[in-house]
Amino acid sequence: MNWSVYIILCSDESLYTGITIDIDRRINQHTTGLGAKYFRNRSPKELAYLETGHNRSSATKREMAIKKLSKAEKTAIIINYKNTSTS
Question: Could you tell me the CATH number of the domain that includes residue 46?
Answer without folding.
Answer: 3.40.1440.10
